[in-house]
Amino acid sequence: MIIKILANGEQREAEVWPGASLLFLLREKLGLVGSKNACEQGECGSCSVWLDGELVCSCLVLAAQADGREVRTVEGLSSSEGLHPVQEAFLETGAVQCGFCTPGLIVAVADLLERDPKPAEGVIREALAGNLCRCTGYAKIIDAVNVAAKRMNK
Amino acid sequence: MDVLLPRSLDEALEMKASVPAAVPIAGGTDLMVELNFDRKRPEAIIEISRVPELKVWRRENGTFFLGAGVTYSQVVRDLPQFRPLIEASRTVGSPQIRNRATVGGNLGTASPAGDALPVLSAYDAEVVIVKAGRRTRRLPFAQFMTGPKKNALAPDELILGAQWRIVRGPGSFSKIGTRNAMVIALASLCLVVDEDAPTVRVALGSVGPTILRARDAEAFAAQAMDRAGVWKDPFASLPAKVIEEFGEHVAAAARPIDDVRGTAAYRGHACAVLARRALRWALDDRKLTVTR
Question: Which chain A residues touch B97 with a CB distance below 8 Å?
Fold first, then answer.
């Protein structure tokens, strides 16, 4: 079936098997490979995107459920002017090792800071509970959230 | 595989009547896992996440109706008056999951580990079921969930929501698992105090084929609170030994098995721990209401 979405502000469409997920549509049909396919069961958060402004695991959204709706992915966070402050913060604090969890985490962090510009540590941890990282031990990721929060609140 | 896209409840019900094999998808947090791993290949899927009539809630005549399509995030944000329901909703998966998953889905999947289910059981909730022509029927929760991943829905029916008489009194939901997020409970417990009855209600998850009510423990607690004068005076104390016995009664109601999440012995122990904590929290909360 043909699925039409507004992806990072651009009208896109593609044909997928009806049982395909939004993640599959994004990666395999629309070339938006920033969102990662790791667990395929909503446990790791590496596929995190915004669907109509809400943070979701795209592996758990049926592509048909996104038809006619707005999807923002990690690709939408940077522009020709440069990286998003959250992306800058991750690079500066050393919160990126293998980088596989990074896009999903950046989306989740950006989502958190949009809603809560100066989150306390407990709030950060709960907000990022849906994103797994096997490399960093999370400490530098928390640092990155604080650095980004400071920058974005200037 | 067909994907049916109703825009209203009536359209969804007509579609379900003509394609009874169509599997409903709302949040997709259970069904998409089955699809992604090739464990299910339904001949049709009916997408109901955008059916507006499922996304409502309302108070009416001392009861509360929660639509099947309300997400856990919405519950946490918009229904603060139902503390056990908020606490259960907040423990579901992760923020990404909670933005999509629904109580209706918990009912549809009917897993004994579903976090909202002990709450619905302790609330003595009814499941409101609907089919084409808006013909509705209601089933007490215990009759709706008939076994692990089994419910009493007919193929031409959808879950409209859950409805319960609003209970006056404190309560809580808690669960035990290997992590503090993204965790399926190996034991969960909802305790609700009904000040008007007065009774204590205790429902257990993940320790039986369905959600279990610890009836003996409920009676024991109510009588113990009566003997100690606690119903009349929230500041009267319940002896520690009584709370311990309550825990043992709750554990005795559990029917756990050994599985990947834990042993039966540990799960029984976990029920006793959860029970003691929940009762203590409720007794402490009863003291707070006196000063308001």
Answer: 42, 57, 60, 130
